[in-house]
Write a structure and sequence with these properties.
The longest helix has about 35 residues, at about 100-130. It is elongated, with a radius of gyration of 27 Å. It has about 180 residues and is of the alpha/beta class. It is about 50% helix and about 15% strand. It has helices spanning about 15-25, 45-50, 65, 70-80, 100-130, 145-155, 165-170, 175-180; strands at about 1-10, 30-35, 55-60, 85-90, 95. It has 2 domains: about 1-95, 3-Layer(aba) Sandwich (Rossmann fold); about 145-180. Belongs to the site-specific recombinase resolvase family. GO terms for molecular function: DNA binding; DNA strand exchange activity. Keywords: DNA integration, DNA invertase, DNA recombination, DNA-binding.
């Protein structure tokens, strides 16, 4: 049995194109979903994966409709293969029912992993170059050392008329942030 899975990221998008392609391929049942491919909570994907039996074929319009993560994609397809379920991605020309399709899938997987590693290396090199120029990463502090000293002086004064909330508001931070800096 050919079973299709169609997904769009937002409710303003339409699965019509995917559904038409899945129907043209001969899918007898189609699961539709709206939600990001990077989210792990995709009930229709869970349902379609449960519904698949040995000899079935899972059909998607494009690989990124199944998953945005290469690791997740390879895991899903490996699980399908182990269960005797075939996988077809219509626009990517991947069909694991053939030897060539399996090879193409693994080559795509290797290329995607290579690309991710290159991006990671570039990011690390850029961060290292920024650090060498004296730039520091991360969020900017909410309070300067001068503001912390002033807040500490106010809070340590036994005759103060302000509450902690008022002191925090004076410095534009939350009460919790104020106490975190005063520790």
């Amino acid at each position: 049995m050919k079973i299709g899975y169609a997904r769009v990221s937002t409710s303003s998008q339409d699965t019509g194109l995917q559904i038409d392609a899945l129907n043209a391929h001969g899918c007898e049942q189609i699961y539709e979903e709206t939600g990001s491919g990077s989210k792990s909570d995709r009930p229709e994907l869970v349902a379609v994966l449960k519904a698949l039996r040995p000899g079935d074929q899972l059909v998607v319009w494009k690989l990124d409709r199944l998953s945005r993560s290469l690791k997740d994609l390879i895991s899903i397809v490996a699980d399908l293969e182990g269960r005797g379920v075939q996988f077809v991605s219509l626009t990517d020309g991947i069909d694991t029912t053939t030897s060539t399709g399996k090879l193409v899938f693994h080559v795509f997987g290797a290329l995607a992993e290579f690309e991710r590693n290159i991006i990671s290396e570039r990011t690390k090199a850029g961060l290292a170059a920024a650090r060498s120029r004296g730039r520091k990463g991360g969020r900017k502090p909410k309070m300067t050392s001068k503001q912390i000293a002033m807040a500490k002086a106010i809070m340590d004064n036994p005759d103060r008329a302000q509450t902690a909330e008022e002191v925090a508001e004076q410095f534009g931070v939350s009460r919790a942030t104020l106490f975190r800096y005063l520790q």
